[in-house]
Predict the structure.
Amino acid sequence: MNLLKFFSKSFAFTAHATLLLCLAANAQTQVFTTPAKGWESVGSVTVPLSKQQVLMTSPGDGILVHASDRKGRPEDLVTAAAYGDIELAFNYLLAEGAEATLYLHGVYPVTLADSRGVATPTALTNGGAAGYPPRQQVGRAPGLWQRMHIQFRAPRFDGNGQQIAPARLLRAELNGVIIHEDVQLQVPEKANGNGKAAEPVRLAVSRGAVALKDVTINKLAEAADSRDRNGADPILVSAQVNTTLRSFMDVPDGPRVVHAISVGHPAQVHYTYDLDKGNLFQVWRGGFLDATPMWNNRGNGTSRVLGSPVHFGVPSLAVGKLVAADNPWPADTAGTGYKPNGYVLDAHDLPTFRYVIYGQQATDAIRPLTNGEGFTRTITVNGNTDGLYLRLAVAPTIVDQGKGVFLIGDNRWYLRIEETGKAKPFVRDQPTGKELLVPVTSITRYSIIF
Amino acid sequence: MAMALTAVFSLSAQESPKEEDYFRIRKVRTPEGIILEVGGLAMLPNGNLGVSTRRGDVYIIENPTSGNPYFRKFASGLHEILGLAYKDGALYCAQRGELTKLVDTDNDGKADVYETIYAWPLSGHYHEYSFGPIIAPDGSFFVTGNVAFGDEEWWRGESRVPWRGWAVNITEEGKLTPWATGMRSPAGPGLLNGQFFYTENQGDWMGSGGLWQVNKGDFMGHPAGLRWAGLPGSPVKLTTEQFVSKMDERRVKNDQGRFIKPENIINEQYKTAFDAKQEFAEFRLPAVWLPHGILGISSSQPTVIPDGVFGPFSGQVLVGDQGMSMLSRVMLEEVNGELQGAAIGFRSGFRSGVLRVTWAPDGSLFVGETNRGWGSAGDANEGLERLEWNGEIPFEMQTVKAMPDGFEITFTLPVDTASANDLASYHVESYTYKYHPVYGSPPVDMQSNRIKGVKVSADGLRARIIVDSLKEHYIHTITLDGIREKDRFYSLIHPTAYYTLHSIPQGPKLSMNEVSTKDSSIPVAEPEPIPAPEGPSSKPAAGSAAPVKAPSVKAVAAKAPTFKEIEGLLAKYTCIACHNPDKKQIGPSYKDIAKRKYSNEKIVELIYSPQPANWPGYATEMPPMPHVPKADALRIAAYINSLAN
């Protein structure tokens, strides 16, 4: 049951107007004109995995939400100020089937939509912009926060209001991945190119529930063109068929993973596995790998994720032995007898990893879900599993949504338990945050949805 | 047979025949889109060829010597594979971080089992390449591993994790035994007649490339790996502390507290590898040095020439070289328990850098190539070629053996006795390398050794020379420019051999009354009014102007030499091993150097003490070349600067 409450208070959304060649002016101004019909300010939002078209809220501040179409489509959100060249960033979260359009300079559309399962992206796919499909499909599942970061150059007009230079989308990053770069924008038909140097930004929701937070609009600084035109020709690895590639892999705030294997799938969801730990440490949607760092010139042995990864923290063991249930998770393989055995490819060239830990033989198979919304992972351990646990997730917050579904982090990904035998998963508090553990049984299966 | 006839016909031209008239480089037809940056080659028992690549693929090529080879992608997605071996129905390869067994269990032509035999630690430095495996006679595996380099001391090889800078032995069951250390960049492990060998290239503590036998517990000279000598199972007892107590690592900081890169000191008391051997019992000298810039700059895989293959050279060793896209031939012998011998050029002209070789059932040699990141004389990025002998006997030194009083050279064809009995046909020089933390070493303590007599066998197949002042542990450069073949007066295809003389054999010496002491160079001939072009095979390029008669020596000195005029010096000092007039090779082109507008004097300075930091786009450092006489260095500089316009 989802109770909607309307608040008529001013929002905390602010713009940092950074003036060129000037003192950093940090004047806090309101971004959107509020109140706007159909929008409210809330403290948190949640989409239950079992009912993804529903967006639940809890009271508070900081998130601007259109939570339901029951009372009709909401009024467009319009910025209080008008802007010329801007740098715009915000986080957004969509319920299932939601669609919205952001209009830069009032007229140039950028699509925000639940685009799961779209085989061929268009300008109307999540991240599509004014005639341009996104370069990659790096959107997240309904109910998860996504981030859009846009640099926009407004059209230029002469004294008679005639356009003398078209608008340009200098850069758009969705979930950290460039989906547009320096493309010229045409004024859409029927749109009013009114010849003004500054116009408000507008957000129109056409369908479904939408949440926004951390909206910032800055005046765009004049960027020096520092791009290296003599850089190496990119060497990209796609996954038109199931594809494995070993390389070094750098993870944020973690060590360089030196025995890493990335596995790519035509469904355009991919993952990287740490063969030194027997564990998955990142999944992503979008393009597979950029092997230029490894295969151009001498190379440094690394490849880079092309799409937008969800990291599972510093790579660590999946299977650990805890003498007492509150023991900290093992920091490394010391004392575990960990030995990697490599992997076996199935008839579809998908790997099942094998290793020995605590004297037991483990296998680990990670398979894409048929609709491309994530993975199902199956871990087997043969023999005596007394005192052994699987750490399924570690995050600052883990919320049990019931029926084996856990929401990990601040709406970052979902974990759905599929099979754990008689073992019951549980969340425990550790100094580093929450951990989702389950006692090891002969087979454990769960899904990762992102 | 038509081929052989053509070859014979072409030999009837005036010039002496060359490598390519006997050993042909054949292509292996490769489907478009396959990138064969070859890291490993393995001949399978059924005649198929396994090829592993730096891109991480393994191909199996059916009918690889035919005109229609068929490629199957056997495995993919591995990490920069730099070796491949076949054993008992499986392929084994060293990736950067592990030894992997690849098995096709369902006979679909593709590996489905990628089994980790042993995973070793890595720090993640780019230079941590791993090579192998080499399958030992007992079925176990040898793998070698590169060192990383320092961060601030980017020039210094360092072993950040076990077993970088080591050779290790690994069993099928995954048991690792550390085997030997002191390796820096051991790209060429190999099994020669059942013994484990490896090649190495010049670098810090490595004066030049060479071929080393590797016995358990050996220390090859680079100190980085000693860090792990104290770990359980290490057969090397020498510690880093013991090493630095005897050897100056030259970790010196400047006023700003920054480390100073060690450079060659031209006039200094230096140590040689042999001096280090006197200090450290584990120290292993190379069986042969492969002189830097002459017989390569980045030595790769060695292989024994099988019986019945490549004619007179069966049983000898070929060693590849990546940077110079060539193969050298090594003639090993054991003298007083020391393995030593001569090295000589064999075949150059491969399309890319030679990294791996393996023998085909038909007696030809597959050559696997890559140059990515380092450059090579052959300017293709990668390749798989095949070297084929046409059955004709080239005129070559077949063997060079140390004698109590000099050397004995055997020839593949009888020599013209007049040329062979003339001491002027022989030149011997000796030199050694420094053992120091500088990148490479110039040849040092170079001297000319007088030839005192020669005895030529009645069949013309053997010449034994008495050489003055032989020096143990020195390389003896034996040049036989004047020797001619008996019937057609051919010159030797490779007139210079480099004998690493660790030990002078005992035994009878020649007496002076049984040798020829005729020396046509002693009664000085009437000076020629016009200096003839040097060398038997040099001829003016078509269309070039006739040599201008020099009105005076001064005028000649003032004018910058042309490439033709300077080519001899560039070859003599091995400059052309790495530099080309017009295009980037291992080092920058002379034209690019000219654009820097250095003065001639500055170029000389840079020849003596190169500054690799000036050329960040080039992977391979230039070793110091202070042995180039200043007058010659100035002529080279003048030539380089003449290209500025």
About this structure: Residues 1-13, 531-557 of chain B have pLDDT under 50 and may be disordered. The first helix of chain B runs from residue 2 to 11. The first strand of chain B starts at residue 23 and ends at 27.
